[in-house]
From TrEMBL:
<keyword id="KW-0614">Plasmid</keyword>
<feature type="active site" description="Proton acceptor">
    <location>
        <position position="154"/>
    </location>
</feature>
<keyword id="KW-0808">Transferase</keyword>
<protein>
    <submittedName>
        <fullName>Spermidine synthase</fullName>
    </submittedName>
</protein>
<dbReference type="GO" id="GO:0016740">
    <property type="term" value="F:transferase activity"/>
</dbReference>
<dbReference type="InterPro" id="IPR029063">
    <property type="entry name" value="SAM-dependent_MTases_sf"/>
</dbReference>
<dbReference type="Pfam" id="PF01564">
    <property type="entry name" value="Spermine_synth"/>
</dbReference>
<dbReference type="GO" id="GO:0006596">
    <property type="term" value="P:polyamine biosynthetic process"/>
</dbReference>
<comment type="similarity">
    <text>Belongs to the spermidine/spermine synthase family.</text>
</comment>
<feature type="domain" description="PABS">
    <location>
        <begin position="1"/>
        <end position="232"/>
    </location>
</feature>
<dbReference type="InterPro" id="IPR030374">
    <property type="entry name" value="PABS"/>
</dbReference>
<keyword id="KW-0620">Polyamine biosynthesis</keyword>
Length: 279
């Protein structure tokens, strides 16, 4: 039976060490670019695809969870500063840079090797409106206050979600870093107890239960919470989703339905249900 270093929140490395002690670590955390006929993907070793880019349309959001995360636009339609945690192949960063031409997009990435691949994924060069910072996101956000309109959490390593990007202290820092009515969006990666723990911690940090949606049925759960938010006006959000789609934006109607269904009639103490049992 495996013995976890932190039984309440075992890391991906804990799991691998317990079940596959002979597996060489040096091959697991190496970012690898894989070429397909139509796509270019960023992977870590033998593990899952971190990001995928359509070669003929580098700005398109290929992976469904990235489109789900962009639903922050329903709550914050004109951000001036978007902070992205985790560069990967730059899907979210590139799309935000294009979608919101008046916004500054700042991306925090801890792995220099990932940053070095930016040209292969058509990630823009640093400028007044776009920059990639090599830093530990937990330490970086701890220094910010009232700084961003949107924070997108999509930072993972070869073993999943790092513990320091899923702690009470980190979510407290996210709350402090957001401006009034700012939006935090978190890709929780997987359903189950780890995602439920993250959702509960976000709820404590923001003093309210996050809204929940998911990429596709059974796909990545995505949590979204608005700082200093009032009760949601669901008819207005449905109308906003229709308007965005009519103006050529992404389709958010299904995400409004998911968030409304998960929000309806659930007391705050049962917030984890939308992650574990979302449809």
């Amino acid at each position: 039976m495996p013995s976890w270093k932190n039984p309440a929140f075992p890391s991906g490395q804990d799991v691998l060490d317990a079940f596959f002690p002979e597996l060489p670590r040096r091959h697991l955390d190496v970012p690898v670019v894989r070429e397909g006929l139509r796509t270019r993907s960023l992977c870590f070793g033998v593990l899952d695809v971190q990001t995928a880019m359509c070669k003929s349309d580098p700005l398109a959001l290929q992976l469904p969870y990235t489109r789900a995360m962009m639903a922050f636009e329903l709550f914050q339609p004109a951000p001036s500063h978007i902070l992205v945690v985790g560069l990967g192949g730059g899907s979210l960063s590139k799309y935000c840079h294009c979608r919101f031409p008046r916004a500054v997009v700042t991306t925090i990435e801890i792995d220099e090797r990932v940053i070095a691949l930016r040209r292969q994924f058509h990630i823009p060069a640093d400028s007044a409106r776009f920059r990639v910072i090599h830093a530990d996101a937990a330490a970086h956000l701890a220094e910010l206050h009232n700084d961003a309109d949107v924070i997108l959490l999509d930072g993972f390593d070869a073993f999943g979600l790092p513990a320091n990007l899923a702690s009470h202290a980190f979510y407290d820092a996210c709350h402090a870093a957001l401006r009034e009515n700012g939006v935090l969006v978190a890709n929780l990666l997987e359903r189950g107890s780890r995602a439920a723990a993250c959702l509960e911690r976000i709820g404590y940090a923001f003093g309210q239960r996050p809204f929940c949606t998911h990429a596709v049925r059974g796909g990545n759960p995505v949590a979204m919470v608005v700082k200093t938010a009032s009760a949601p006006d669901w008819p207005a959000l449905h109308a906003r989703a229709r308007d965005i789609a009519l103006r050529g934006g992404l389709e958010y109607h299904a995400h409004v339905k998911n968030m409304e269904r998960n929000d309806s009639g659930r007391p705050a103490r049962n917030a984890v249900a939308c992650v574990v049992h979302g449809t």
